[in-house]
Design brief:
By secondary structure, the chain is α+β, with helices and mostly antiparallel strands. 24% of the residues lie in helices and 36% in strands. The strands form four sheets. The chain has a six-stranded antiparallel beta barrel. It has a six-stranded antiparallel beta barrel with strand order 7-8-9-12-11-10. This is Serine protease Do.
Length: 382
């Protein structure tokens, strides 16, 4: 009798054969079940593709359409502002900036733009988004905030801008600039970026002496702002104004740093320019010089304590002013106002314009002939 030896691989082969029959049986079962269902008119779809994460094309398209609709609506409110100046050769266009129609009241409409766009202009012309040109009248301007308000006939005005609350703007939000870079040939140009920073303090030279006279608080964006964009709109993705474009850092080594005046500042200043033609601010009535700008010998002659390192020196006191009535004198050194340290004329001006108002009492800490004293005065309107 012949004996059979079981090879170690025989067990594996048996298992494989059993698995093959199982698979074959399953396929036959599926075929039979499918055939029965189809004979009864029931359709079976078997999906074998793996699941994948995909964006909803409809949602993306709707978002883009909403943004483009918002931009187009805002574009209708953005205009060109041409400054015309008288020269020995007659009237000449001194440059073109941008503006935003923000209010319509009866037969009149109002445009906000930058002060530096209309400065020293003898005539002003506004070009509407459809190319229609209308004469404009200066209602008022404010060099410190770089804002101006123009009045135009409302006949050709359809939409007016809708302002957002710029206090709710956050860094990283979409920022879209609309304006007329390099003039009306590129009217209504749109550039897109983000809000890069908030509450930026930018020094401003108002009298051309290359020294800062004021620090304006602005919003920073990397949306392209070019010459001609000044006075144009900076909007959010919903088409609401978050700022009025004002300036950029123009250096070869700098790219994408532009600034806009926040909407909250714009709305408050334009209201005052509409009603009064100017912004009224508290006034002391003296000419001032920074202590830090004096030579060491001149500082010694003031006989002030050595630990006094900053302050402002009174030059002249105008008659019938708060300073004259309070008895401020030439060469008085002001170091504090209402307990706040004053190191420069800029510090004093910012305190007066931002933290005080006409009619308030202010207490000055003053050094006169080396002695410290307190001087109280009532601020008036300039």
């Amino acid at each position: 009798m012949k004996l059979f030896k079981r090879n170690v691989n025989d067990t594996g082969n048996s298992k494989r054969n059993g698995f093959a029959f199982s698979v074959f049986g399953a396929i036959v079962a599926v075929f039979i079940v499918t055939a029965i269902f189809q004979s009864q008119g029931i359709k079976i779809n078997i999906e074998t593709n793996p699941e994948t994460a995909q964006a909803n094309p409809l949602t993306v398209e709707n978002t883009e359409k909403n943004t483009t609709d918002a931009i187009q609506a805002a574009q209708e409110t953005v205009v060109g502002v041409s400054s015309i100046k008288e020269t020995p050769r007659g009237s000449q266009n001194a440059g073109t900036g941008s503006g935003v129609i923000y209010k319509k009241d009866g037969n009149q409409a109002y445009v906000v733009t930058n002060h530096h766009v209309i400065e020293n202009a003898s005539e002003l012309e506004v070009t509407m988004s459809d190319g229609t040109k209308v004469d404009a009248e200066l209602q008022g301007s404010d060099p410190l905030t770089d804002l101006a308000v123009l009045q135009i006939d409302a006949e050709n005005v359809g939409k007016v801008a809708d302002f957002a609350n710029s206090d709710n703007v956050e860094v990283g939000q979409t920022a879209i600039a609309i304006g007329n870079p390099l003039g009306m040939d590129f009217a209504g140009s749109v550039t897109k970026g983000i809000v890069s920073g908030l509450d930026r303090n930018v020094p401003v030279d108002l009298n051309g002496d290359s020294k800062p006279d004021w620090q304006t608080t602005v919003m920073q964006t990397d949306a392209a702002i070019n010459p001609g964009n000044s006075g144009g709109a900076l909007i959010n993705k919903n088409g609401k104004i978050i700022g009025i474009n004002s300036m950029k850092i123009a250096k070869a080594e700098v790219e994408g740093i532009g600034f806009a005046i926040p909407a909250e500042t714009v709305t408050s200043i334009t209201a005052e320019l509409e009603s009064k033609g100017e912004v009224e601010r508290p006034y002391i009535g003296v000419s001032l010089y920074d202590l830090s700008q004096l030579p060491a010998r001149a500082v010694q002659e003031l006989n002030i304590p050595e630990n006094v390192e900053g302050g402002v020196i009174v030059g002249e006191t105008a008659q019938n002013t708060p300073a004259a009535e309070a008895g401020l004198k030439q060469n008085d050194v002001i170091t504090k106002i209402d307990g706040e340290q004053i190191n420069s004329t800029l510090d004093l001006r910012q305190y007066l314009y931002e933290d005080a108002k006409a009619g308030d009492e202010a207490t000055l800490t003053v050094f006169r002939n080396g002695e410290q004293q307190e001087v109280t005065l009532t601020l008036s309107e300039q």
